[in-house]
Design brief:
- The chain is built from 20 helices and 12 strands.
- A 5-stranded mixed β-sheet has the order 1-2-8-5-3. The protein has a 3-stranded antiparallel β-sheet with strand order 4-12-9.
- It starts with 28 loop residues before the first helix and ends with a strand.
- The protein binds protoporphyrin IX containing FE (HEM).
- The site of protoporphyrin IX containing FE has 25 residues, from helix 15, helix 16 and helix 20.
- Protoporphyrin IX containing FE binds next to helix 15, helix 16 and helix 20.
Amino acid sequence: MDTCPVVHTAAPAQWDESRVGKRANWAGARRVSWFIRYGLPRVGLGFSARRGDLIAQMTTEPALRADPYSGYEQLREMGPLVKGRVTFATVDHAIAREVLRSPVFHAGTDLGPLPPKVTRFGASFTDPLDLGPVDAPSMLAVNGDLHLRYRRLVTRAFAAKNVAQQEDRVREITGGLLDGLARDGNSDFDLVARFAGQLPVQVIADMLGVDAADRDKLLHWGDGAALMLDPDLSWKQYQHATDGLHQLHTWVLQQLARLRREPNDTLLGRLAAMDGDDALSDVELRMIAMLVLGAGFETTVNLIANAAVLLDEHPDQRQIAMSSGNWANVVEESFRYEPPVQVTVRTATTETEVAGQTVKAGQTVLTMLGGANRDPKVFEDPQRFDVTRANADAHLSLSDGPHYCLGANLAKLEGRVALEMLYERFPNVKVLPGGQRRTNRVLRGWAQLPVSV
Ligand code: HEM
């Protein structure tokens, strides 16, 4: 293999704050920041899509956004690693795992697809209060030692043993939500607004030590922030997303200041109290708190709602689920079949070979998690939703490698308890017409899901 310039050596254990926001006070800075971060990729994707690039079309074409699975199958026919005009993509389970686990590939947008100089220029116009979940120094967008350093601070709270101890509390919150629905006496309601969206935010807010009064605001701001995961936001969407982010950052700052005055033993309290060698800058602390909080409720809502729709569409599987009580496997199969996070991206730090093709430094690979989950080499009859599937948990919906979902144990616990208790309390729950999907490309779920019980 040829050697070629390394575009990014081992990540610094300290994040360089000077890279962001130097020009954020300039008139029009926000628009410049949008243009470089989202406008240029939007133009590139549109151009490539019009020239028949399937990978780009999967972001730009409404029909493929609504049903990405047909696109994944077309990609599968094109080979294990497909080279598009802007990026590579894979729906091959083994190749996706290889890329996600490889130290040669980094997460985050710092390295590509735009030249690093352009990315840095864009960052200089970005207000630090507009930084989103895939912008450094978010844990999702840093690598190496710096990533380890951030991740270590929060790992313990989400380890299997500690999450298992939360089960009683998760059941209590779930029971409270179902009691509320039963008390209302309405036979129709929106499953997302009243149940699937509420449970994760209540659980994570509890773990972090957030006041109950703030939860609805968080949900509202978080929806905007989640848009930032998509690569092609319009200026209008960007404004909406950054308005939410701005408020979220400001709120987290206030919380951290309060916790420094009145320390407590919650996860946020412990982060706020760190000092000495462990001390992080305010931006770093804010980004960790926001990611844990936002990832805690913007994804699990989709797991629960997607599973409810799948069970509704497959009455035989619902029957098996209800009689076997194996809700843990229903959760795994729902993760596999309809992943709440459909795709993630990695950038090569040096030239490397993947599936017999050369990927140059700075080139990106989209690991299509939703496609890898239907790889017939791993899953027998992969287009069938089967809650008894023995290897359902081999899905990649929670990623793999160093960025493997920090909240995986919690998401699985919440999904299992939510479905078990929902179908126990309302065995006849039925999805009504009129549901609306979320419009995101990366996240897949429901904005509204009317049901009757
Ligand atoms: C259905 C629920 C969930 C899904 C589908 C999901 C999915 C994912 C995926 C795919 C990644 C990795 C992205 C990448 O490789 O680029 C990730 C990372 C992460 N998730 Fe989750 N997640 C879920 C729930 C949660 C929960 C409940 C939390 C709460 C703490 C959480 C916190 C995180 C964090 C902090 C990361 C970043 C980890 C890192 O970069 O090291 N997630 N998640």
